[in-house]
Write a structure and sequence with these properties.
Elements lengths: L8 E10 L4 E10 L4 E7 L3 E5 L5 E4 L5 E4 L2 H18 L9 E7 L4 E3 L1 H4 L4 E3 H26 L3 H11 L5 E5 L4 E4 L8 H8 L6 E6 L7 H4 L4 E5 L4 H5 L2 H12 L3 E5 L5
Parallel strand pairs: 3-7, 4-8, 7-9
Antiparallel strand pairs: 1-2, 2-3, 4-5, 5-6, 10-11, 10-14, 12-13, 12-14
Length: about 270
């Protein structure tokens, strides 16, 4: 998890549409500052990383096995262009060079060859904190001073909203602490339960809770309870609300499965 980036907002695992593949491309990290958007591809590789003749990157692990991917820098650049196009479709035209992209080799045991290491888009574990301090925190602090003097930064607020409601993975929180990550496709239940679920739209919902009641209670109080959090309410406000206390009391009394749809706009 990446937290505590001073003066910036961090969004994880965004999935932006890719019309060529008729699907979505995942972006590991998006860092939003007052001046830029940084698209970050994170690689937890160990061992040596070399560039092949065709431009692809080849990881040579300690045990001798290899893993090859297309040029990671170019691929990250492409994902950044997809994000820019997605933001434009949602009504914000970004200035030239507003989006930057980086490849973060997070593992200290990763040894990239010089041909990779000297690319300005590549960050090693030793360079990450310097990048945050020099590129992210300082310019955000300076821009925040200008924003305070000149009034509210409308574009920044629009970008904050767009990124916080961009598609991401569905997270299924299971009783006992387990988490399943993927695409929520369907819920099998009674017709009336299915109808209730269908009435909850992804476009204005970021949280759904489905409560499964044990079979001997089924005829008494039903099998499904659905609650949802509208996107117009911030998650922080929701967590501080009395509704959370109600959900907590319900969850203590019954076995349940919770689906967190993290700011999904589909």
């Amino acid at each position: 998890r990446f937290q505590g980036v001073s003066g910036a907002l961090v969004f994880q695992s965004l999935r932006v549409p890719d019309s060529e593949r008729k699907g979505r491309r995942e972006i590991d990290l998006v860092i939003l500052t007052k001046k830029k958007i940084y698209v970050i591809e994170v690689k937890n590789w160990a061992g040596t990383v070399k560039i092949q003749r065709d431009g692809s990157w080849c990881q040579i692990r300690r045990n001798g096995t290899t893993h090859t991917l297309p040029d990671v820098v170019e691929d990250t650049k492409f994902r950044a262009s997809l994000l820019e196009a997605y933001i434009a479709r949602r009504g914000v035209k970004l200035p030239t060079d507003f989006i930057d992209y980086k490849v973060f080799l997070i593992n200290p045991d990763c040894s990239p060859v010089d041909e990779i290491l000297y690319q300005p888009e590549v960050l090693t574990s030793e360079q990450w904190q310097s990048f945050l301090d020099q590129e992210v925190s300082q310019e955000s602090w300076f821009r925040s001073i200008l924003t305070t003097l000149n009034g509210k930064d409308t574009t920044h607020e629009q970008l904050k909203y767009i990124l916080s409601t961009a598609p991401t993975w569905d997270k299924l929180y299971l009783e006992g602490g387990g988490i399943a990550v993927g695409d929520f496709m369907y819920f099998r239940g009674r017709p009336e339960d299915m109808l209730a679920l269908q009435n909850v739209k992804r476009s204005n919902t970021c949280y759904i809770e489905m409560q499964h009641v044990r079979s001997w209670l089924r005829n008494t109080i039903g099998t499904l309870w659905i609650g949802f959090l509208p996107l117009s309410i911030s998650l922080e406000d929701f967590l501080a609300s009395s509704f959370l206390g109600f959900v907590d009391r319900v969850s203590r009394a019954n076995s349940f499965i919770s689906l967190w749809q993290d700011f999904y706009l589909g």
